[in-house]
Amino acid sequence: MVFLQRIQAFAKLGEKLQELLTQPTNEFLQILQKAESQNPWFTQENSKKMLANIAQMLNADNLQQWIESYNLPEKPAKTIAVIMAGNIPMVGFHDALCVLVSGNALVAKLSSKDAVLLPFVFDLLVEIEPEFADFIHIEHGLLKNFDAIIATGSNNSARHFEYYFGKYPHIIRKNRNSVAVLNGNETVEELQALGNDIFDYFGLGCRSVAKLYVPRNYDFTKLFDTWDGFWNLTQHNKYMNNYEYNKSILLVSGTPHFDTGYALFTENSDYNSAIAVNHFEQYENAEQLAQKLQHDSELLQCVVSSFDIDGVPIVRLGAAQENKLSDYADGVDVVRFLTTE
Are strands 264-267 and 258-259 parallel, antiparallel or unpaired? Predict the structure, then answer.
């Protein structure tokens, strides 16, 4: 299969996903329902949100511009194993796209939390371009017979990945978190957009903002007042169970915190926070904060802000989950890895 075939197939996949989102078939609706029944965190709303983002990525012009910058050689395909995470819907799709569009064969080890949507999308791709059938394999057993591996997991699982797969060319990802930096001059619209960065996908993504940096004596009232639209989180049982549990811990320990009724905010230096909890830290010196963020860059997936921070790549407020084709997890260029190994 030549380069142009692969690009055209993924562009048509994007069009097909957009069509299903606007004119859903019974099969598509059943897939969304099945994904939610198997994993309640994958609400139909969140699954559709991710599929819409993928459909937007798979624009023909976007694909052409993205992949042509690599000047991909036409060479025999390698077999690339991908161990996928399952924290948010279809989080492993971008790795699969990189493998397939670069002319390699994919062996996908799906997370049990995300075992419905990806096979459905792979089937759509094969319907569009039948030659992809020979390039896509979902492995339910032990991984074997591969040339390189991409694995995503926790810090603990990363150690196991290193042990078992360290002898192969590899990308092994660990925990990362995202933060937002505010200066108190944000508009209501920007603060509303920040709410999406925090609460989309219940805050389970590595690009979900888990911590805020705010100026000393920051007034949270304006911030919380803009988030009335997120009260629907109280309708999700698993999320609210976590909220109630973490609230009880803060109360019993006497930890000062803000409580919006659906989310908790407490001052804490850690980047990682529990479900329904967001940390914040006050800063006085913007230059020192910039240095800290630069120093901790390997712990951070993205930094969200309405203003530039010296030496720190910035994602605008509200765009944390709007992945572009060139937005590689952990900043590791997967296509470059696949074409050089």
Answer: antiparallel
Instruction: Determine the residue type at 139.
Output: E
Q: What is the DSSP string of 88-114?
A: STTTTHHHHHHHHHTT-EEEEE--TTS
Alpha-helix residue ranges (DSSP H) falling in 226-322: 237-253, 286-295
Secondary structure (3-state) at 220: coil
Would you state the torsion angle of the CA atoms of residues 68, 70, 76, 79, taken in this order, to the nearest 10 degrees? -110
Contacts of 30 (CB under 8 A, 6+ apart): none
Residue with tokens 């057993």: 141
pTM of the model: 0.94
Token pair 């709410």 is found at 195
- Which of left, alpha, beta for 330 (phi over 0: left; psi -120 to 50: alpha)? left
Instruction: Judge contact between 294 and 312, C-beta under 8 A.
Output: yes
Q: How is residue 160 written in tokens?
A: 């196991």
- Per-residue pLDDT in tens (0 to 9) along the chain, 341 residues: 788 899 999 999 999 999 999 999 999 999 999 999 999 999 999 999 999 999 999 999 999 999 888 877 777 789 999 999 999 999 999 999 999 999 999 999 999 999 999 999 999 999 999 999 999 999 999 999 999 999 998 888 888 999 899 999 999 999 999 999 999 999 999 999 999 999 999 999 999 999 999 999 999 999 999 998 899 999 999 999 999 999 999 999 999 999 999 999 999 999 999 999 999 999 999 999 999 999 999 999 999 999 999 999 999 999 999 889 999 999 999 999 998 86
Closest by CA position to 314, among listed 173, 197, 220: 197
